[in-house]
Amino acid sequence: MSQLSPRRAVSAAGLVLGTAALGVAFAPAASAAPSPAVTVSQSTVAPGATYTVSGGDCISEDADYDAAGVVFLAVGAQSADAELADENGDWTLTATAPTEAGSYEFSAVCDWYTDGFEYGNFTITVAAPSSTPAPAPAPAPSATPSAPGTPRGAAAVTAGVASPDTGAATGDAAPLGQKVVKILTGFKPFEVVTVTLNSTPQRVGTFTADASGTVRVEFTVPAGTPVGDHTLVYEGDKGTYFQEAFAVTATPAGGSARLASTGASVALPLGLGLGALAAGGGLVLAARRRSTGGVQA
Length: 297
Description:
- With 297 residues, the protein is α+β, with helices and mostly antiparallel strands.
- It folds into two domains: 6-126, Immunoglobulin-like, CATH 2.60.40.10; 154-261, Sandwich (Immunoglobulin-like).
- The protein has helices spanning 6-22, 27-32, 267-296, and strands at 39-40, 44-45, 50-55, 70-75, 78-84, 91-96, 102-111, 116-118, 122-126, 173-175, 179-184, 192-198, 202-208, 215-220, 228-236, 241-249.
- The strands form four sheets. Strands 2, 4, 5, 7, 8 and 9 form a six-stranded mixed β-sheet that branches. A five-stranded mixed β-sheet has the order 10-16-15-12-13, with no helix packed on it.
- A hairpin with a 3-residue loop joins strand 12 (192-198) and strand 13 (202-208).
- The longest helix is centred in the C-terminal third of the chain and has 30 residues, at 267-296.
């Protein structure tokens, strides 16, 4: 902000007091021609914040005085800020807003000692910043976690886990009451794996993987499990997940279940044994009869 000479400062102060006494400064000049307007950088400011006001035409045609005039802002009879216009009469003044909230009407006055005029009045609104914080955005709804043992879908299967139907494994189908053996790889070392048979969830056991991540699962298809397609779910306590299709088939004819480890049926050996026992008893009985007949003769 430019410094005012003592002569101009006294003149500016005298113009302010004259404005306060008469109510309207330079009324004849203002009525003769429209007052030029000013440009304000912002109409609403925070308490004590700065803003700028700019305008032009503040220049004297009197050769006895400096060409440039003095521009100052006034609110009522109080002068707020002052600035010298340049040689072309253009000026930009940086002003400081009042510290109390409210609306304030300012007048900008151009003074070149022998004459002057008022620019059009402007209003500044002083508004305190809002103390109410903006509401925090609502958190995104989280997916409802699946109940333990519920199939999560193929996308949830942990990469690297496999269930090969080779070696001691009995495959992906078994009748009611049959022992099932599944050997899976890809779990974490010594991970505890809970196995659940779906559709209606039935936990069939908990098994522990070895140091290489291989786990051997053995269970018997529970009685009452519906015949048809099901899903075996494997859930490790270290986060590993796997699922695979499993079919429950009808019980073989005669109602006897096969042994998973041998694939043999107990019905045939049992029948052969009973037949041999019966045949042996008949031979003993016939021999006794022949022995008795010989003695009687």
